[in-house]
Amino acid sequence: MNSNIKRPTIKDVAKKSNVSVATVSRIINNLDGYSEETRKKVIEAMDELGYQRNAIARNLKVKETRTIGVLRPKISTTYYVEILNGIEDFAQRNNYSVIICNGGDKWERMSEYLQVLSERQVDGLIVCSIPPDDTLCKRIIDSHIPTVLVSGLSYKYSLPYVKVDDYQAAYSATSYLIENGHKEIAIISGPTEDPIAGVPRLNGFLQALRDNNISIKKNLIKEKGFGFIDGVEGMNELLETGEKFTAVFAASDDCAVGALSVAHKNGLKVPDDLSIVGYDNTNIAEMSYPPLTTVAQPLYDMGKKSVEMLIKRISYNEKVESIIMPFEIIERETVKKIKDI
């Protein structure tokens, strides 16, 4: 009886998925010339019809190159070093190669590199610190490359991400200074046009002041950036105001070291005269003098986790959940505990 059951043919698959027999054949044989959407539609038809699913299962994926593309903005800080180390180490451990592309200051090279990575048939893509810009995120979606974001997110598109809660981390860093007796606290923050790190870190700082009934002084808020020169400029501007402050929260370690250098040039001893807290816990925090107290993001683990998530998407073609990573305050030698006045 079973021998009389007609097995589905490639024509049946083509009819059910509303594509040509040639397209079905190309998909089965890992040839080019079809979209990711068409591939998925044909695979679903095969599954529903039971068309030699077990026999061809290994061939249903797009041809694997064991290569991951990494898109990052132009590097102006040491922030990305450990993230990239985590990405490359974990990728290599899982027999993947990594291609790293510089998207530019304002991601102006993004389309070009997405095209290059598509032509090289990378199996997946990791994008670092991309702003939640609908146009940029749509380009990623349209590339049909499985993607994971690091230190970025999209409000409109379903792109999984791994990042730290910047608002909560900045709140904790500011609270740490307050717990050590500081009430006149300045901030050298990231730019307000940066909704991923700039705005949340500034808002976390401000909320910590409010929750501790500390008045917010506009003169002690310098919206700059995350680089060394931003810390230099921000610290110079703070000193020029003539406003009293005993501590500075900087939006990054590079920024904090810039502030440290200005303090030194102006005869201010850290932490005796001024306390400084950074953000990221990069190598520069340990190498600065004095060693920098900072908010530690698990940068290496964030890179590693992004690859782990991406491989899961590549291998099983299934949705992965976004991850908020833990942070901690690393106490070194740039914060003084002062008595309440």
From TrEMBL:
InterPro entries: HTH_LacI, LacI/GalR-like_sensor, Lambda_DNA-bd_dom_sf, Peripla_BP_I. Its EC number is 5.1.1.1. Keywords: DNA-binding, Isomerase, Transcription, Transcription regulation. It holds the Pfam family Peripla_BP_3. It comes from the Bacteria. GO terms for molecular function: alanine racemase activity; DNA-binding transcription factor activity; transcription cis-regulatory region binding. CDD domains: HTH_LacI (cd01392), PBP1_CcpA-like (cd19975). Coiled coil: none annotated. It is an enzyme of class 5 (isomerase). SMART domains: HTH_LACI. PROSITE patterns: HTH_LACI_1, HTH_LACI_2. Residues 8-62 form the HTH lacI-type domain. SUPFAM superfamilies: lambda repressor-like DNA-binding domains (SSF47413), Periplasmic binding protein-like I (SSF53822). This is Alanine racemase. It comes from Clostridium beijerinckii (strain ATCC 51743 / NCIMB 8052).
